């Protein structure tokens, strides 16, 4: 768990972090970073490739990327197989969201490559724009909370997900398929998105990304700001998207326990570098990962 001490509260006072787990000790963000760096080990390319099932569907090699002239990711590698899920965890400022931003085209890439597609169908998408990555490469980015258009109806929000389609009728057709899939949204199709509950808004955000029928979902903090019952609902939806609909998922998740329980593969980032990589359940059982990121 990453919780900062506040005010004059004694360091031994029990506290509850964002994982809803009690802990007898509070570790500052600075200490998490320091201790995580001590745990960091050089993760070889053989380890990275071994965790991906079959030919990698998403492959990042030697990526140096950031914002403006500031480099956040340093020689970063990643591989995930088709229909697999990968969760990125780590201290604040480790570069987790920057990985998603880089895949989707929101960063400056100084060197390295990003490819999508398996085997002979692999395509270099490093220099494509976000619109090209959505329309041509089948990559959708599901932003953090509060990305719906509150004054628009649920139905209109879904139509917006198809803004790159050649014909508006195609977006409307896809919206109807989504309403059939998620009756909870269908019941609210004519209501302003601003009146939805937190869980319903997240469902709408995910559904809007599905309008373009992407192959790869980049999911940024799916549990942030949600009550526990809605968190479970969102991860059930993501589970079905992976295992029933065949989507490949790369996510950043502040609730490291929930993210590692969900994902096939887990990566720990520290200071813009890959510090640890293993199967999600293996990292979940790692006592050092538990101490720093899972609340004990």
Explain this structure to me?
- There is one protein chain.
- Mean pLDDT is 88; it is low at 1-24.
- A hairpin with a 2-residue loop joins strand 3 (56-67) and strand 4 (70-81).
- The protein has helices at residues 29-39, 45-51, 96-104, 130-135, 154-160, 168-181, 183-186, 198-210, 228-243, 256-262, 280-284, 287-293; strands at 15-16, 22-23, 56-67, 70-81, 85-89, 108-116, 123-124, 139-142, 216-220, 248-252, 265-270, 273-279.
- The protein starts with 14 loop residues before the first strand and ends with a helix.
- The protein has one domain (15-148, 196-293): Rossmann fold.
- By secondary structure, the chain is an alpha/beta fold.
- The strands form 3 sheets. A 6-stranded mixed β-sheet has the order 8-9-10-5-11-12, sandwiched between helices. Strands 4-3-6-7 form a 4-stranded antiparallel β-sheet.
- It is built from 12 helices and 12 strands.
Layout of strands and helices, then pairs:
Elements: E1 15-16, E2 22-23, H1 29-39, H2 45-51, E3 56-67, E4 70-81, E5 85-89, H3 96-104, E6 108-116, E7 123-124, H4 130-135, E8 139-142, H5 154-160, H6 168-181, H7 183-186, H8 198-210, E9 216-220, H9 228-243, E10 248-252, H10 256-262, E11 265-270, E12 273-279, H11 280-284, H12 287-293
Parallel strand pairs: 5-10, 5-11, 8-9, 9-10
Antiparallel strand pairs: 1-2, 3-4, 3-6, 6-7, 11-12
């Amino acid at each position: 768990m990453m919780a900062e001490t506040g005010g004059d509260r004694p360091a031994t006072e029990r506290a509850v972090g964002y994982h809803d787990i009690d802990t007898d000790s509070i570790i500052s963000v600075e200490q998490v970073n320091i201790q995580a760096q001590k745990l960091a080990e050089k993760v070889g390319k053989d380890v990275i490739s071994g965790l991906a099932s079959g030919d990698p569907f998403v492959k990042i090699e030697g990526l140096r990327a950031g914002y403006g002239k500031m480099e956040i990711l340093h020689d970063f590698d990643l591989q995930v197989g088709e229909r697999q899920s990968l969760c990125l965890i780590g201290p604040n400022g480790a570069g987790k969201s920057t990985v998603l931003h880089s895949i989707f085209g929101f960063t400056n890439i100084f060197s390295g490559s990003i490819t999508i597609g398996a085997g002979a169908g692999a395509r270099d998408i490093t220099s494509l724009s976000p619109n090209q990555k959505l329309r041509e490469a089948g990559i959708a980015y599901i932003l953090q909370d509060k990305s719906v258009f509150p004054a628009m109806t649920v139905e209109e929000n879904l139509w917006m997900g198809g803004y790159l389609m050649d014909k508006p009728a195609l977006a409307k057709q896809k919206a109807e398929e989504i309403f059939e899939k998620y009756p909870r949204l269908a019941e609210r199709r004519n209501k302003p998105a601003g009146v939805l509950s937190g869980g319903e808004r997240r469902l709408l955000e995910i559904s809007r990304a599905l309008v373009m029928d992407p192959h790869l979902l980049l999911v940024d903090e799916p549990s942030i700001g949600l009550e526990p019952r809605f968190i479970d609902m969102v991860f059930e939806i993501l589970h079905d998207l992976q295992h029933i609909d065949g989507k490949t998922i790369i996510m950043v998740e502040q609730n490291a326990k929930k993210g590692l329980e969900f994902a096939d593969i887990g990566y720990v980032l520290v200071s813009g570098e890959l510090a640890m990589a293993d199967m999600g359940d293996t990292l979940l059982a790692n006592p050092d990962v538990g101490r720093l990121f899972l609340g004990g």
